[in-house]
Structures are given as C-alpha cells and as structure tokens.
From TrEMBL:
Record Gene3D superfamilies: VSR Endonuclease
Family matches, as InterPro entries: DUF559, Restrct_endonuc-II-like
Name the UniProt record assigns to this protein: DUF559 domain-containing protein
Domain DUF559 per the UniProt entry, residue ranges: 90-140
Segments passing through the bilayer: none
Amino acid sequence: MPALSVEDLVIAGDAFATRDPRLVAALAAAGAGVGGRGRRKLRAASELVRSGSGSPMETRARLAFGEAGLPEPELNATVYAEDGHFLARVDFMWRGPRVIVEYEGDQHRSDRRQWENDIQRVRLLEDLGWKVVRITAADLADPHRRRELMRMLHRLVG
C-alpha cells in the first residue's frame, strides 16, 4: 500500500475535525509524538487541518488556495439577508472583499432541483453584493484552469 500524501492526511484530518473540532489539537499533539519517516508528513498535515470542510474536494480547493498564497477563507460560513434571516451556507468566504467560492460537485449539475436552487441562491447572494465564483474538480485538476482561477481569486480577494 503506498504511503499517504500530506494532502491525503489533511483530507482525513479535516473530515475528523469537522465532526469534532477538538481533534485539530489532538492531531497536532499526536504529530509531535510520531517518529520516523512519517513524522514530517504528519506534522505538515496537522498544521493544515481545519474544522469546517464539507468534502474532500473542498479540502483540496482550500489547500490550492493556500498554495497560491491566498488568505485563508472562512469554511462553510453562514450568510444572512439584510433583514437577518438565513440565506445560505457557503463553502468558502472572504468576508472583507465579499467573495464566495462554491465547489460544485456533479450532483449540482445532475440533480435538477439542486441546480435550480443553486441558481436562485447565487442570484440572491449577488444581489447582496457578494461576488460568487463557482468551481469544479476540473478547475483544480487542470493546471491552466487552476492558474487562471487563482489569478482571478487574487484579483478579487486581494
């Protein structure tokens, strides 16, 4: 069985930490006690684990943002309408510049109700002054698309 990459470890760590945020500190402590070849990877991963990721692809996107030098976004942040009622929970938010990134898995395309709800949701967010950037797995996997996405986010987020 091949060794897990730092990214694999972060994905697993995010999944656990999202269920119980106390696990972020526990993972960091465990990394300090590990010896041998895996120690460096575990330490690197423990520094990158965050609570709040909704999926492995959201973790991959967050790691790509960090590699590109973007400030860390809020994860699965809540947006309220001007009158205070709940509007949306979004994958990634940079509150100051009012930028939201939504990772769109295939179910956002293949499920008609989901697709229609997504369109309305984006329309409502944009009406409140948010810039919404929708991304897919291809935006992270294809080097050219990834560079263009990160360039755009740098421009929007600052």
